[in-house]
Amino acid sequence: MVDIETAPNKVFTWGLWNQTVSLNQIDEVGYTLCWAAKWEGDKDIMFSSIFGDGREKMLKRIYDLLDEADIVVHYNGTKFDIPILNQEFALRGWTPPSPVQQIDLLRVVKQRFRLASNKLAFVGSYLGIGAKVQHKGMELWRDCMNGEPEAWKKMEEYNKGDITLLEKLYNRVRSWITNHPNYGLYFDTDRPMCPNCGRVHVQKRGLYRTTTLTYQRYRCMDCGTWSKERYTSMDKEQRKNVLKGI
Ligand SMILES: [Zn+2]
Questions:
Q1: CA distances, 25 to each of 15, 31, 155, 192 (Å)
Q2: Please, which residues have CB within 8 angstroms of residue 150's CB and are 6 or more apart in sequence?
Q3: Less Cβ crowding at N or C end of the chain, within 10 Å?
Q4: Distance 218 CA to ligand 1 centre (A)
Q5: Coil, strand, or helix at residue 85?
Q6: 40: closest CA among 242, 198, 156, 193?
Q7: Is the pLDDT of residue 238 over 60?
Q8: How many angstroms is it from 160 CA to the middle of ligand 1?
Q9: How far apart are CA 109 and CA 126, in angstroms?
Q10: ∠ CA(135), CA(77), CA(74), 5° rounding?
Q11: Per-residue pLDDT tens for 146-195?
């Protein structure tokens, strides 16, 4: 799980209302301030910032984590966190970290629900799983950019709080994720394994038929994910026990 916080672009403007900012009005482009991340199953939430580690080390640490991970869970990270980190890596002349499968929970809630707002704060409160850490808004960002230690404490709390919320959201919506990277392909097991949570507590629940094929359908007794396995024209030896989400 990963979440980043960024500094805004610093720009010169003549007015405050409906401004169009040209490139030559940019004083300083935005950059990554900090990130928080967590391995699933680990207790610790990792955190790194330009204040604590310096820009280079902060980026190297998240680069290494992305390089090591098979799957990354985020909220709007497909369009925000990951491309921003990528451009920071490229800026330093680094080549891409090894490819990682992405689970963007914003895409999941957009696809499966129709909430009044897709902001993480709203989704968290709607599903009753928790709230974001409160802060004083733009002032906190400004204070952090000015290197004020108290502000950075709050930023760390805020950034880590988002990871806690993200993990709770992941666990809540896990069974709603279609095309979840398949756990069955990451583990060598001869027992049918839930594609979305990797547990083997799955039950046969009827058949699933497409126009051409019949599948054995399963339901995970731990997370509730439905999955299927090709049923016909496959003898026991051929079966790989790799279930696929429906
Ligand atoms: Zn499961």
A1: 12, 17, 28, 59
A2: 143
A3: C
A4: 10
A5: helix
A6: 198
A7: no
A8: 26
A9: 12
A10: 75
A11: 999 999 999 999 999 999 999 999 999 999 999 999 998 888 888 889 99
CA of 72 to the centre of ligand 1 (A): 18
**216 CB-near residues (< 8 Å, 6+ apart):** 204, 207, 208, 228, 229, 230, 231
Number of H helices, E strands in the chain: 6, 11
What is the sign, positive or negative, of the torsion defined by CA atoms of 220, 205, 243, 72? negative
Question: Tell me, what amino acid is at 33?
Answer: L
- Separation of 198 CA from ligand 1 center, angstroms? 6
Q: Which two tokens stand for residue 24?
A: 């030559």
Neighbouring C-beta atoms of residue 126, cutoff 10 Å: 13
Question: Cβ–Cβ contacts within 10 Å for residue 29, how many?
Answer: 12
Indicate the Cα dihedral angle 231, 235, 237, 242, nearest 10°: -10
With residue 111 as reference, give the H or E element that holds it. Answer: helix 105-112
Residue 162 C-alpha to ligand 1 middle, in angstroms? 24
Amino acid code (one letter) for 69:
A
State the distance from the centre of ligand 1 to the C-alpha of 185, rounded, in angstroms. 14
